[in-house]
Design brief:
Strand content of chain A: 25-35%
Number of strands of chain A: 4
Strand order of the largest sheet of chain A: 1-2-4-3
Number of helices of chain B: 16
CATH class of chain A: Alpha Beta
Oligomer: heterodimer
Mean pLDDT of chain B: 93
Shape of chain A: globular
Structural class of chain A: alpha+beta
CATH class of the largest domain in chain B: Alpha Beta
Strand order of the largest sheet of chain B: 6-7-8-9-10-11-12
CATH architecture of the largest domain in chain B: 4-Layer Sandwich
Strand content of chain B: 15-25%
Radius of gyration of chain B: 22 Å
CATH topology of chain A: Translation Initiation Factor IF3
Number of strands of chain B: 20
Shape of chain B: globular
Mean pLDDT of chain A: 94
CATH superfamily of chain A: TusA-like domain
CATH topology of the largest domain in chain B: Metallo-beta-lactamase, Chain A
Low-confidence stretches of chain A: none
Largest sheet of chain B: 7 strands, mixed
Chain lengths: 78, 385
């Protein structure tokens, strides 16, 4: 599992879509440009959704991987 | 009020050519990979749910005001989410697909094939999400199913509605593109499973091995079901001839193609087998037989009642580019030209169908999603088009 520094962590385990993306958006909205959010989800749909949402909004998806914990995302706010 | 609808309701609206907008709110990648395919033209729009989240006004503006809106998403939560946004903008006829696109992927639609009043009933079960077909034969209250998918609930309800009992299921081959329902149906109802040992040898469940020329009965006084071993798509591929009238052809004969022999990883060897089947078994059959295939490629192949069936003669005549090839070398070359990658999940599905793997229900649903890739011919033509 990759690890890197992050500024906030958001646990979306057990939530179904659209909640992981909605909560991620809300968390990102409170952060400053350049800060990194770590988000963990268990909904398999979040893998492609977060990636599509990030490319749509311009936030940088640094890591998108599947671990024992779930799907782990590191997102850098634009 | 936001109204839930089922995949079967959606299919009926599509079938009746109802006027509505199908709004798919999944991300573009998932939408591109798999989407609702309608027998007729349908107004479909893909706007991901997170677009509604990011730019509500602009996204809502993309949705036409004068239509009923049917929202589709992966599971159903995002469709509800978007549905609520649309309602808050004054849309008053909005529905969301219950259980999401997976329920569309699993849905089966029954169509009666032969006329009312015949001694036995032939049924086609279309699975639009897979472009695959299973077939039913009802005789004296007994239902035989050919190539059932894993939608046990549907087949049990169908049997109950028609006052019959599922007594046996026939596998035309070890499927690679979808999870077979025979094992589950057998477990639930005690029905017998038939298949060819060329594919099913070593399977973890009980089955009756069929051989070329065997004749089974649909019911004690019912029509004959004759086994025609037709190797090529797989070594154990088998057609079942019903009452010398219909042939359940599995992935051996399609209405506009043949079943590709390269899925097993031995393209040349299996293409040779398929050539022999084509020349010695298919071309020598009674040309008036009605072929009932395991898949279709396009909805256009169906007749006005959405039945995918044609005479062998018509199939041979209209697909001369394959069925007319007159040397094994040319045939093998044709197959080689048309080889394309198969979905990675096919290897796993084969193991499930042999009973060697038994994944969780959710996992099976996700393995089972997506249109099939079983036909031999169209690929090269599409690539050059």
């Amino acid at each position: 599992m990759s690890e890197m520094n992050f500024d906030q962590v958001l646990d979306c385990k057990g939530m179904n879509c659209p909640l992981p993306v909605i909560k991620t958006k809300k968390a990102i909205d409170t952060m400053d440009s350049g800060q990194v959010l770590k988000m963990i989800a268990t909904d398999p749909g979040s893998k492609n959704d977060i990636s599509a949402w990030a490319s749509r909004t311009g936030h940088e998806l640094l890591i998108n991987e599947q671990t024992d914990e779930g799907y782990v995302f590191f997102i850098k706010k634009k | 009020m936001l109204t839930p609808y089922s995949a079967n309701e959606l299919f009926n609206w599509l079938r009746q050519k109802d006027d509505f907008l199908l709004l798919d709110v999944r991300n573009e990648e998932d939408f591109g990979r798999f989407q609702v395919e309608s027998p007729y033209k349908v107004h479909m729009l893909n706007v991901p749910y997170f677009d509604f989240m990011e730019e509500e006004e602009a996204s809502v503006a993309k949705v036409p005001r004068n239509k009923k809106i049917k929202v589709v998403c992966a599971k159903e939560g995002s469709a509800q989410y978007v549905g609520e946004i649309l309602e808050s903008h004054g849309f008053d006829d909005v529905g969301y697909l219950k259980e999401g696109i997976v329920s569309w992927g699993n849905m089966l639609a029954p169509v009666r094939v032969n006329d009312e009043g015949e001694a036995y009933e032939v049924w086609q079960f279309i699975r639009p999400g897979k472009a695959s077909l299973s077939w039913g034969l009802i005789s004296e209250g007994e239902l035989s199913i050919f190539d059932p998918s894993r939608n046990l609930e549907f087949y049990e309800e169908f049997a109950a509605e028609h006052g019959c009992k599922i007594t046996q299921t026939f596998e035309t081959h070890l499927q690679a593109d979808y999870i077979s329902g025979s094992r589950f149906i057998s477990k639930a109802t005690g029905s017998k499973v038939f298949g060819h040992s060329g594919d099913f040898m070593g399977a973890s469940f009980d089955y009756t091995a069929v051989q070329n020329g065997d004749i089974f009965k649909a019911s004690p006084k019912g029509p004959d079901i004759e086994v025609v071993h037709s190797p090529g798509h797989t070594p154990g591929s088998t057609c079942y001839k019903i009452d010398d009238t219909y042939v359940v052809s599995g992935d051996t004969i399609f209405l506009v193609s043949l079943g590709r022999p390269d899925l097993g990883g031995k393209a040349v060897e299996w293409a040779g087998m398929l050539y022999e089947t084509m020349t010695k078994k298919i071309r020598t059959m009674d040309p008036t037989l009605q072929i009932l295939p395991g898949h279709y490629i396009e909805w256009a192949e169906a007749d006005e009642n959405l039945v995918f069936m044609d005479t062998l003669q018509n199939i041979l005549d209209s697909n001369a580019a394959i069925y007319g090839i007159s040397s094994e070398a040319d045939f093998v070359e044709f197959i080689k030209q048309n080889i394309r990658k198969q979905p990675d999940v096919y290897a796993e599905i084969r193991k499930v169908n042999a009973g060697w793997l038994d994944p969780e229900d959710d996992e099976q649903s996700s393995m089972d999603l997506g249109k099939n890739e079983c036909a031999a011919s169209a690929y090269a033509a599409q690539q050059s088009a």
